[in-house]
Amino acid sequence: MRLPLLLSMLLTFSACQSGNDTETNNYLEEVDIAGLQAAMSSGELTAVALVTHYQQRIAALDPQLHAIIELNPEALDIAQARDAERAAGQIRSPLHGIPVLLKDNIDTADQMHTTAGSIALLDAPTPARDAFLVQRLRDAGAVILGKTNMSEWANFRSTEASSGWSARGGQTRNPYDLERSPCGSSSGSAVAVAANLAVLAIGTETDGSILCPAAHNSVVGMKPSLGLISRVGIIPIAHSQDTAGPMARSVRDAALLLNALVAADPEDDITTNPHARNPVDYTLALQADGLRGKRIGVMRQDFGKDAALDALMEQQLTILRNAGAELMDMGIRSRNSFNAAETEVLLFEFKNDLNNYLYERGGPMQDLADLIRFNEENAAIELADFGQELFLLAQEKGNLGDGEYLSALGMSKALSQTNINSALQQMELDALVAPTNSVGWLVNPAGDNTEGYISNSSLAAVAGYPSITVPAGYINGFPIGISFIGGEFSEPLLLGMAYAYEQLSQARKPPILQQP
Questions:
Q1: Are residues 5 and 137 in the same domain?
Q2: CATH number, domain containing residue 493
Q3: Does 185 participate in catalysis according to the annotation?
Q4: Roughly what angle, to the nearest 10 degrees, separates helices 33-42 and 3-18?
Q5: How far apart are CA 345 and CA 404, in angstroms?
Q6: Catalytic residue among 103, 147, 351, 397
Q7: Residues 4 and 63 both lie in one domain
Q8: Is 68 part of any domain?
Q9: Which residues touch 419 (CB under 8 Å, ≥6 apart)?
Q10: 294 carries an active-site annotation
Q11: Does the annotation mark 209 as catalytic?
Q12: What pTM was estimated for this model as a whole?
């Protein structure tokens, strides 16, 4: 974004705050990291002014979106410190002075809570230290602006839950259609970025929790390979699938955020791999001709079910072909082949991993049994619309030496990884492509009705492989994303293809919101 446009946005925002023109599209100008850095480098903008802008914007718009669960009371102080460093000639990274929002399941050792959206952890001790990725962000000079709302317990409490709902934050709303789902569980992160409440946010995914809300809210979301980003300090579901990932309005901004997150953590063995120990600059993969000569498999099993989605996706496939990609139609075994096994793995690991997290954190909630009892005792708040069936099922499971768990883990990993690896190798493909989503369902406090809904997150999620979704257009105003899926640690390849597609499609449009 050019500097005059940025200043115009800020001035128009102030005018709208005090005037009668309540349509926020007048100042909902898309601003990226490069534009912000240019403005701060020239002295026309400070980190303090930027944080203040986002705080004001959140105050104006979030009452209808419920994307933000808590603001960081130290954000302005952090921004002031980053401004002082800049004035002294110290620029830590491209994220210096850039506000970032964190999903509410990511530990911060500050004045904010970390609760996974549940009131059960409001009285828990403040985490003794930041999550490893949060410390990485602080070291990069980012300003932690606040925490985002989410599907409570990352949508692993009830089979009937409403995506984007938490007892702490209420129901997150989709800025493109307040009556339709923002998807979850990283709903608040996606909505905040989409509605320009921040330029960047962190989401987490076990299966679809970055990709689905990113697609539903017309932003870029990347689920990295398992092992690139440390899991330490993130309230878990399952260590064999959990990962954090970037959410942004452009592929370039997502790559810049990924740069800051990737590192080896001595306390997370899965990051002791060459890709985390020797991270690359992912922005180097962003080339306009990133699709030329690429062989991409089109996952045709999700075509023929929705005429509007088919028509939109065929237009995107034409963009890929015209950019020099060679497309091959293919079928691939979907989630149905490992659905039951994945569920078993998540139930076993959830109990084990959450119990470990709660014990280490301390406080009145020491294990899953305590949470179950808390929800029963506070049923009017926590269980008013749906229950805790997944909690109860998980509580019945044994330890991770159980043969049932080991068999399910081996089966789910083998099937998902083999499905992707075989497709890539046998057809000599660089990546797979598919629609990320179809039109989202209506928000229902009693639970989601996703019958007929199309999603393509599970293969990569269970395999531990990377996937990225990019805005692909709209059906009746509702955002649709396109997913690029690759083999293990193929992030540079996927980012390059996603960037080249994004430059040609230019599909994203900001939502039009009105202040209440």
A1: no
A2: 3.90.1300.10
A3: yes
A4: 90
A5: 9
A6: 103
A7: no
A8: yes
A9: 332, 333, 337, 459, 463
A10: no
A11: yes
A12: 0.95
